[in-house]
Design brief:
Blueprint lengths: L1 E5 L4 H12 L3 E6 L7 H12 L4 E5 L5 H11 L3 E4 L6 H6 L1 H21 L4 E7 L23 H20 L3 E6 L2 E2 L8 H10 L4 E3 L6 E2 L2 E2 H12 L23 E6 L5 E2 H12 L5 E3 L15 H7 L7 H16 L2
Parallel strand pairs: 1-2, 1-4, 2-3, 4-5, 5-6, 6-11, 7-10, 8-13
Antiparallel strand pairs: 9-12
Helix pairs in contact: 1-2, 1-8, 3-5, 5-6, 7-9, 9-11
Length: 335
């Protein structure tokens, strides 16, 4: 297939591009290489895919309406995976408009490209952050998620609503994937594992929010990529049993679906740090702090819909995933 991937120099986008290229798909990669974090890391990720003859590299910002339209016209992708977004809960508190520009306006441009060019299936990144103030665990795609705690979370919920509208009006099959705390080799420097590793190796203290007591459903990047591919290969169908009198948030009478992709094994942050210390062979000096605004105490994915519809369940334990990250980090940075 010919697949357009936005955010192709990103953490997940780069790994997904490689997997699709390796199985013989043609990939059109879209990325603006912005400086939200180290551009050199993005370029290093991109170098891996540029080596494949089936990869086309487009230096493009999804906020560029005409540029996105031209990319769809020229390349005519059969399927699209939208991973480009302004990421980060904490950054959204300080810079809310960057989330409006990229996550709302940019996503609208992708939807329009799909609508006007007969795309067979749009898969897009949502986030576990949409669960916001919800406290019933595990988080289910069948739960109402109308109380986000950050603009980042609100923008991801908005993406789900926007996609559903296009599925309803234009019969565009769309699937939203709520990713749960993705980590692994080639990860993002603004994420905890990357920051902790850098600080511990430098002999610096690490900031541990919520006194290390919150739990996260840490999900290894290869598990995320496998889930994305399984879903991408199965365009969202309508749910013939959907009932407007008792509406199911995860499905629709339109060709629309939402899935969680999580490991289903929440790990307390202090245990996560413990595993990292074991892999590094060093102890961390911890500065214990209260929970930050916009953060939630716990995340825990219920993934039975994903298992039922795709036959896949993420299962990499943090002990394995963190060890692989540390091996990559030491090799990449020579430490």
């Amino acid at each position: 297939m010919k697949i357009l991937i936005t955010g192709s120099a990103g953490f997940i986008g780069s790994a997904l591009s490689l997997r699709l290229l390796e199985r013989g798909d043609e990939v059109i990669g879209v990325d603006n290489l912005n400086d939200y974090y180290d551009v050199g890391l993005k370029q290093a990720r991109l170098a891996r895919t540029l080596a494949h003859p089936g990869f086309t590299d487009l230096r493009l910002d999804i906020q560029d309406r005409e540029g996105v339209a031209a990319a769809f016209r020229e390349h005519q992708p059969q399927r699209v995976v939208n991973l480009a977004a302004q990421a980060g809960v904490r950054y959204s508190i300080e810079n809310p408009m960057s989330y409006v520009d990229s996550n709302l306006t940019g996503f609208a441009h992708i939807l329009e490209g799909c609508r006007h060019h007969g795309v067979e299936h749009l898969v897009f990144a949502s986030s576990s952050s949409v669960y916001g103030a919800n406290t019933v665990m595990p988080f289910s795609v069948h739960h109402n998620v109308d109380h986000p705690l950050s603009l980042y979370a609100a923008s991801k919920k908005a993406n789900e609503l926007m996609a559903h509208t296009y599925s309803h009006l234009y019969r565009l099959p769309t699937t939203g994937l709520r990713f749960f705390t993705v980590y692994g080799p080639w990860g993002r420097p603004d994420m905890a594992l990357f920051k902790f590793t850098r600080a511990i190796l430098a002999g610096e203290p690490i900031e541990v929010f919520n006194y290390g007591r919150h739990r996260r459903d840490f999900t290894y990047v290869d598990d995320i990529v496998e889930g994305v591919i399984r879903v991408l290969d199965r365009p969202a169908p309508p749910n013939p049993a959907w009932d407007g009198a008792s509406p199911d948030p995860a499905t629709s009478a339109a060709p629309y679906r939402v899935y969680n992709i999580g490991n289903q094994h929440p790990v307390e942050l202090l245990r996560y740090i413990e595993v990292l210390e074991e892999c590094l062979g060093r102890k961390a000096e911890k500065t214990l702090l209260p929970l930050q605004p916009g953060d939630v105490p716990d995340t825990y994915a219920e993934v039975s819909d994903l298992v039922r519809d795709t036959g896949y369940k993420p299962d990499t334990p943090v002990e394995t995933g963190v060890a692989r990250f540390v091996d990559w980090y030491r090799g990449f940075y020579g430490v």
